[in-house]
Amino acid sequence: MICRNCGAVLEHVFLDLGSAPPSNSYLDPADPGAGEVWYPLKVFVCSRCFLVQLDEFKSHSEIFSSQYAYFSSFSSTWLAHAHRYSLDMIERFHLDSNSFVVEIASNDGYLLRNFVEAGIPCLGVDPTTNTAEAARAVGVETLTEFFSSVLAARLVRDRGQADLVAGNNVLAHVPDIVDFVSGVKILLKPGGVATFEFPHLLRMVTQTQFDTIYHEHFSYLSFLSIDRVFGKCGLRVFDVEELPTHGGSLRLYACHAEAPLPENPRVGDLLQKERHAGMATIGFYTGFQDHADLVKDGLLEFLIRARREGKRVAGYGAAAKGNTILNYAGARSDLLAFVVDASPHKQGKLMPGSRIPIVDESRLREYRPDYVLILPWNLRSEISRQLSYVQEWNGQFVTAIPRLSIFSAEEA
After folding, report:
1. Which CATH superfamily hosts domain 62-258?
2. Measuring CA to CA, which residue among 326, 340, 351 is closest to residue 74?
3. CATH level 3 topology of 288-411
4. Do residues 369 and 395 touch, judged by C-beta distance below 8 A?
5. Which pTM value belongs to this model?
6. pLDDT tens-place string over residues 122-175
């Protein structure tokens, strides 16, 4: 395997999670005999450019199919985040009815609907037909295609260049990240701005957030590594923010390399912060396996102990990250009775690999579990507030990352 950025041979393993089925390939219980294909989940780090990456075992066109089950609008926290972002971009970059905004990986229109409401022309680009249909239903024009440099050139020809290009949690999802960023340069006006958000690799390592590793994510990004990719493609990062979303994310602001936008001191500060942490040395990336194994072992020990003590455990949030940790731990429905999810697109299906049933929230009140395992741990405050009624029967909440934690709604 060679680095998808610089072409160096990849020799250093960052983390080996064995194998698993794709994390968003939920199963139909009406076909219990259906087979699943398990692919290696082994992550490498490039010793030349320090891009952490997973090989492409399943085509991204297969992963992001018409049955894609992730809809952004089912998290109130994420909707609020998108609304704040939209207001900030409109004010900071003076966007109005004469501007053009493009979001790549626009999902169900969760973000662009804010620009529609503000009267700003916009276009969503997303390869999954079911999420695109949901976006169109809320008034967001959406093109159902994968973004690439070829598509960018076509968009410029047909629609013109964009004042703002947005991409939240998409950089990790593209196997050819260099072509993708090159497409952003093509699409962007000479004075335009592109913003991208993604989980920060520094936080992944320091907080042992290994459950963000799954087959949809081809790359795991530090600021050092992505800054090199953007520079290679003729874009310059002129500002960056550290965000609390997804357990710790970055939002970077990029423009054409020759654009006169001044560089915010935060750029140099973050590059120095990562270097000081050792992210420009291969030693930073060794030892992560041991930390991930401790988290996995802690969760499995808790589930087994709860079963032996006659305690009931249910899960909440059929998120892809939950599938990673459950499959790595080998947890099945004998240890976790079911997983509740707010999305009707997941309810009635089975978790990939573990085949744990996914149900609606009413099942919690019926089952009255002693523990609710919150799989999307980054939303623990939102979810524990929403489910605070479990205290009526002395139920408690559990998260596994960065270490096993048992708590009440008031302690979240």
Report:
1. Vaccinia Virus protein VP39 (3.40.50.150)
2. 340
3. Rossmann fold (3.40.50)
4. yes
5. 0.91
6. 999 999 888 899 999 999 999 999 999 999 999 999 999 999 999 999 999 999
